[in-house]
Amino acid sequence: MSTPAFTLRPIVSGDTPFLQQLYASTRDDLALVPHWTEQQKQLFCHMQFSAQHHHYMQHFPHASYSVVEVGGQPVGRWYVDPRDGALHVLDVALLPAWRRRGIGGQLMRGLMDTAAANGMRVSLYVYAEGNPARRFYRRLGFVEGKLDGMHMFMDWAPQEKE
């Protein structure tokens, strides 16, 4: 299967409903809360998204916040913060129908190419337990680092040229 052609564009205020929907699609853990109604889960997701979004904007003002689009339709988000001589992936998420289709790999490889061309590292945090994303990042050459609560720090450095 070939990777769908996609583009990145900066987020705008009109993207909030899509970004909330995308965030909710990443919260499979809410299925484990059987006593919550769908409305309660939806409200919880909206509150969590708002808190996360505010945190990103306040603490990472120099990051690039992008929507991933396929055929002009939003399918994901891609947030990258340049800091401390590295490109730090704050967040990457795709709607379920667009996962495992090569978009995430292309995003990461493109960022790694940019980092390598500039002598920079790429870093990120990933959920530590039961997360297939850890294997994905290891396959790309990321090295696991410090465990910080529920998150594992992972780092990639370009190969030194001989």
What does this 3D model show about the protein?
The chain has a seven-stranded mixed β-sheet, with helices on both faces. It has a single domain (7-156), classed as Aminopeptidase. Helix 3 (103-117) links the parallel strand 4 and strand 5 (121-127). The radius of gyration is 16 Å and the shape is globular. Helices cover 34% and strands 31% of the residues. Helix 1 (16-25) packs across helix 2. The model has no long low-confidence stretch (mean pLDDT 92). The protein contains four helices and seven strands. It starts with 6 loop residues before the first strand and ends in a 6-residue tail after the last strand. With 162 residues, the chain is of the alpha+beta class.
Number of helices: 4
Approximate helicity band: 25-40%
- Going by CATH, the architecture would be 3-Layer(aba) Sandwich
Main β-sheet description: 7 strands, mixed
How much of the sequence is in beta strands?
A: 25-35%
The Cα radius of gyration reads 16 Å
- The CATH superfamily name is Gcn5-related N-acetyltransferase (GNAT)
Q: What is the 3D shape?
A: globular
Which residue ranges are poorly predicted, with pLDDT under 50 across at least 5 consecutive positions? Answer: none
Q: What is the CATH topology assignment? A: Aminopeptidase
Which secondary-structure class do the elements indicate? Answer: alpha+beta
- Strand order in the sheet with the most strands: 1-2-3-4-5-7-6
How far apart lie the N and C ends? Answer: 35 Å
Count of individual domains: 1
What order do the SSEs take from the amino end to the carboxyl end, as H and E? EHHEEEHEHEE
